[in-house]
Amino acid sequence: MLSLILFSIAIGCILQAVSSECANGCNGHGKCTSYDMCICNRNWQANDCSERTCQFGLAHVDTPKGDLDMSGSLSGPNNQIVDNSFTYPYGTTEQFPQMEDSDLNVLTDSGHYYMECSNKGTCDRTSGQCLCYEGYDGVACQRASCPGYPSSCSGHGVCKSKKQLAASDSGNVYKLWDKDVGMGCQCDSGYYGPDCSLRKCKSGIDPLYLDDSATIKYSIFDFALLTTAATIDFTDGGNAVPGTSTPTGQTNPGFWAIWFYDITGEDWLTVPIQSGSSCKQVIKALEAIPNNVIPPGTTQCSRTQKLATPENRWQSWDAQHYRGNTTHPYRISYNLSIWEADWGENANTGAPELLATTPSSGSNIGYTNTGSPGTAIASTKATTALSGYIYRIKFYGNPGALPQPKIEIYLDGKRPTLKSSGRVITKVWTDGQQGESNDYFGDHCDGVTVTIGYTAYGSYYLTGLSGTEKALLKSCLGSADFDSSNNRETYNWDYGNRLYPHIVKLVRSSTVYNDGGYYAAVYYKTGLVLDNTPAPNANQGAQGTFMLLNPFSPPDAFATDNYEVYTTKGTLALTSNASEATFSFASNSIYMVNASYDIIGSTFDGDISCEIGNNNAYKLKYLFHCLNKTDLFTFLNWANPEFNPPYINLYKATRLYTTPFQYNVENKYLTRLAELNTLGTTTYPKKELHSMTHIINTDLSTNWGVSMTGLQNFNIYKFFPAPASTYQYVAECSNRGICDTATGSCTCFPGYTSDDCSIQNSISL
Fold it and tell me: Which of 300, 333, 515, 657 pairs as cysteine with 383 (C-beta 3.0–4.6 A)?
């Protein structure tokens, strides 16, 4: 009885308190009902509405709410146990809730449901603020803190979300649940580490990197300022460019500038450069960049000026030739559309692009002016010659793999400072002379020198070899693929084939120290002895010739130059035979398409990326080797080597992504009667035509241009470097010192000096 009385008194006190608070307006944060109960406003709770509800966010870690009804067990995710809760006004469950998408489809495999303080903090009911656990921040503890929070990134970087970090890395996309939750530091140039507290030291060339021939590859970039006008009529549009003055005798000349990126990625903008400036003036602008970024006297430049001609050709500005052709190997013309892949249709309209052309004919490389169904995708696009300037600049004072520079023509806000009566086109590219920090071809083939041979029908090959040199070269080349069991002869090598050609580096025997050589793709063709050099004896392999896949042309007028050969244990491998590449000249985007010769019979869409999931695992049967971000690759035409660029670039994939397909075969190729007859049908299958839907972005612009045709099948070849053949010769402290990451200064080993330890000095011992 006493207990009952005490219980009644307690209940009465509570009701009186509630009634009192209710009468007082629920502390101003709710509404009093006729039952003397408080109905709290949103984000307020407790019997008297005196406590705050904190903000919710996606839970970093899901946790069940426990046995809310004290039944002794946890009910399932569909059983709503609590209704009209202050914290969960729409009810909640004991286990993880079963989530739904926007179409109300139940998601059985889901997580990270919204929780108060994102399940990584406690709620201060007085202030309504989340008290986050260490390592988390935000009003709902919804973010993982960057290192050093609240002084994130040591003052030498910016704290960004995963989504932002991906976008700043070549425009990549990150869309997983934690795109705005996971955080990281994007460090300023010259700093690194999770909290950007470590400093990089100056990089230099290892002084012990010495070979029989100079092999230091410095960056050489071509800067093109072009117009479709018949004359070079660049102006600034009639308004003076800030910081410049109009030269005597000229009216409103146009101005441009160069964005230069040092080896750390720091960007530097030159002072405005007048259109038509001499090489001396361009170099002066580069050397004016502060902090000695480009040391004086370490830059070479050559310039060509050309007016439009009916031949659509640029005369060589450095005596470069393509065998019998006295012009530069690139016949640069202006294509009025991106591409065309049809017969009898009107030209597609699109963004104009530059295309390189094959030196042996007047048609665009990859395009044919004539064709028949089933043999080629013909193009009759109009092209126009270009006028303007091209500067070839060599940065031999800046060793290492430099990011590609850019041309800036907007030096006055959004107003272009380089205009023309035609369309202004600016391009930057490198032609087989990319700077490098790693030498992937560190194996010198001792005792072998070669020259470049050429046949009238466009075949290039290595010649000038004695029988002994031929045998040595075979041994140096070794295996072309990943399988040593199929090697042949006493030299333990294989010939190389379409799947796995050999790749070498050719360096002139007599040259200057900063001539880094050129890459060349090689295979051995038996039964064809172009140089009339027999094998030493019958037991040492079939007679043949070392054929070049790229029509390598000596980079000067001396076709008899001798070349040292540097080989690698690395492998050049075809990614897919059913995927074709198409790209414009001096472009950072390469488009992968389903091979045109198999455009109907295959279900493969041309995607060579490594992101193969369960939904498209069938692609694996079309892929020999997939391509991933940061992989090295190049492009080659095996069937028609004469259409390949003379010089090979090794590109790095910076981004691989996909866009929706635009056509299917039925509505795109209505007149392809020859293939219809071959298939024995009168109706086209509605197969997707994946043209320009799978895109590879590159670190360097292409030095060639090709379209999708049935004859010019360009494929992507992935390069697998071998650690045994790789040497990093451009590194912090030149590999001859230790970097103090606190100060960014080098402590050189005994015998080496300078701020980058690149100089041998016996006095410093």
Answer: 333
Ranking 18-27, 94-103, 465-474, 512-521 by mean pLDDT, the lowest is 18-27
Kindly state the DSSP code that residue 322 receives in the 8-state scheme: B
Q: For residues 503 and 480, is the Cβ–Cβ distance under 8 A?
A: no
Residues sharing a CB contact under 8 Å with residue 387, sequence separation 6 or more, in sequence order:
226, 227, 228, 229, 230, 231, 232, 306, 307, 308, 422
Which residue, of 74, 104, 132, is where some domain finishes? 132
Q: Residue 552 to residues 454, 518, 561: CA-CA distances in angstroms?
A: 9, 9, 12
φ/ψ (deg, to 5) at 580: -115, 145
Question: Of the candidates 157, 149, 162, which has an alpha carbon nearest to the alpha carbon of residue 198?
Answer: 157
What is the count of structural domains for the chain?
Answer: 4
188: in domain = yes
**What burial class does residue 758 get, using C-beta atoms within 10 Å of its C-beta: 0-12 exposed, 13-18 middle, 19+ buried?**
buried
Residue partners of 78: CB distance under 8 A and separation at least 6? 93, 98
Report the candidate in 59, 30, 41 with the shortest Cα–Cα distance to residue 130: 59
Residue with tokens 């002066």: 284
Which amino acid would we find at residue 583?
F
CA distance 342 to 663: 12
Among 169-173, 267-271, 382-386, 499-503, the range scoring the smallest mean pLDDT is 382-386
Mean pLDDT of the chain: 78
Q: Are residues 48 and 156 in the same domain?
A: no
My answer on whether 120 and 149 are in the same domain is no
Task: Out of 522, 543, 569, pick the residue that ends a domain.
Answer: 569
DSSP for 363-410 reads: SBTT--SS--TTT-------EE--EEEEEEEEETTS-S-PPPPEEE--
Residues 113, 154: one domain? no
Give me the pLDDT at residue 246, please: 60
Question: If DSSP codes are grouped into helix, strand and coil, which group holds residue 617?
Answer: helix
Residue 291 lies in a domain: no
The model's confidence at residue 253, banded by pLDDT at 50, 70 and 90, is: confident
List the beta strands (DSSP E) in 527-578: 544-548, 563-567, 571-574
Residue pLDDT, tens place only, 41-92: 888 988 888 899 999 998 999 888 888 888 888 887 778 888 777 777 777 8
How do beta strands 518-526 and 571-574 pair?
A: unpaired
Say if residue 11 is in the same domain as residue 41. Answer: yes
Task: Indicate if 42 and 160 belong to the same structural domain.
Answer: no
577: in domain:
no
Domain range for 758 is: 727-764
Q: Which helix (H) or strand (E) holds 5?
A: helix 2-23
Judge contact between 464 and 451, C-beta under 8 A: yes
642: buried, middle or exposed (CB in 10 Å: 19+, 13-18, 0-12)? middle
Gap between the Cα atoms of 562 and 298, Å rounded: 27
289 C-beta neighbours (distance < 10 Å), count: 16
Question: Both 14 and 46 in a single domain?
Answer: yes
Amino acid letter at 150?
Answer: P
Same-domain pairing of 12 and 62: yes
Q: Domain check: are 456 and 536 in the same one?
A: yes
pLDDT of residue 499: 95
Asked, for residue 358, whether it belongs to a domain, the answer is no
Residue 326 predicted with pLDDT over 60: no
What distances in angstroms separate CA 657 from CA 166, 168, 576, one per listed residue? 13, 15, 17
Q: Is 532 helix (H, G, I), strand (E, B) or coil?
A: coil
